[in-house]
Write a sequence for this structure.
């Protein structure tokens, strides 16, 4: 996964957090992004 790809969900999370949209589900977006980053770090060992 290219590193710019997680930037989009984080930006959406910040917009949703500042606009008070999505309730608790907006935090799920950040959690999923962090999971993808950890998986990328674990599998990108060259």
């Amino acid at each position: 996964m290219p590193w710019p790809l997680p930037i989009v969900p984080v930006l959406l999370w910040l917009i949703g957090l500042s606009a008070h949209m999505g309730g608790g589900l907006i935090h799920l977006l950040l959690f999923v992004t962090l999971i993808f980053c950890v998986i990328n770090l674990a599998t990108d060992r060259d």
